[in-house]
Structure formats: C-alpha cells, structure tokens
Amino acid sequence: MQSVRNSILSHMRLRCSAEQLSFAQRGNVLKQFRWKMCTSAGTSPDQIMDRVIRLVKKFDKLDATKVTETADFQKDLCLDSLDRVELVMAFEEEFSIEIPEEKADKLTCCADVAKYIVSGGEQKNVNPE
C-alpha cells in the first residue's frame, strides 16, 4: 500500500507547475488533488458537458426532454431557488468540487456549469498572498 501511495505522490509532484506548487503551499492540497482527479487528463470539456446534462436530466422535478446545453434552469426548466440549490449540491457531489453561493447564482444553464467546472472555478477564487 505504501508503494502505491508513493507512486501516486511522485506522479503528482512531477506534474506540478510553479503556480500549482504555490497553490498547494497555501494549504489547499486536498482540494487541488480532488479537483485534478475529477477533471483529470482523460476528461474533455465535451465529456464534462455530457455529465452535467445527464445529471440534470436525472433531476426528478423537470421534464428531461427540455434539458439542453442552453436551457435556463429557472425560465425554461421551471426550477425554483430551492430546486437550483439541490441541483448545485448534486454538481458538487458529482464533480467533487465546492461552488460558492455567489457563483452558484450565476450558473443559469448546463453550459455555464460545464464552463465553471472546466475552468477549475474554485481555484480561481483563491487570493494570492
């Protein structure tokens, strides 16, 4: 087990840039690692979009046939604020990320959610020291 752990850690160290190292030094190593594992090299933006759409279609309070990349959660899919909070929680669980409330309010469709996830949204919110 120790050799597997060491192998993973050495692989992660080899792929770190200077920016990522400074990010890791600020105490967010686990968040960065979790984000890298969920959106790792094998996951393209199209695959993330597909996962987002599939997750929204599973939401039992809406008609799955109306779900598209640009369908507005509130206007087109008729989700109220509580439903949108539940949806954001589902995105956080599916992609192992945290979406701050002020950012979640701006995610109005599947395309917005996918862009946020691809961009590594939570990493861009870190203030440089």
From TrEMBL:
Any one annotated GO CC term: mitochondrion
Function as written in the Swiss-Prot or TrEMBL entry: Carrier of the growing fatty acid chain in fatty acid biosynthesis. May be involved in the synthesis of short and medium chain fatty acids. Accessory and non-catalytic subunit of the mitochondrial membrane respiratory chain NADH dehydrogenase (Complex I), which functions in the transfer of electrons from NADH to the respiratory chain.
Pathway it works in: Lipid metabolism; fatty acid biosynthesis
Gene3D superfamilies hit by this protein: ACP-like (1.10.1200.10)
GO molecular function, one term: acyl carrier activity
Family membership: Belongs to the acyl carrier protein (ACP) family.
HAMAP family per record: Acyl_carrier
Sorted UniProt keywords: Electron transport, Fatty acid biosynthesis, Fatty acid metabolism, Lipid biosynthesis, Lipid metabolism, Phosphopantetheine, Phosphoprotein, Respiratory chain, Transport
Residue stretches making up the Carrier domain: 46-121
The name this protein goes by in its record: Acyl carrier protein
This protein's record includes keyword Phosphoprotein: yes
Complex formation: Complex I is composed of at least 49 different subunits.
Keyword Translocase listed: no
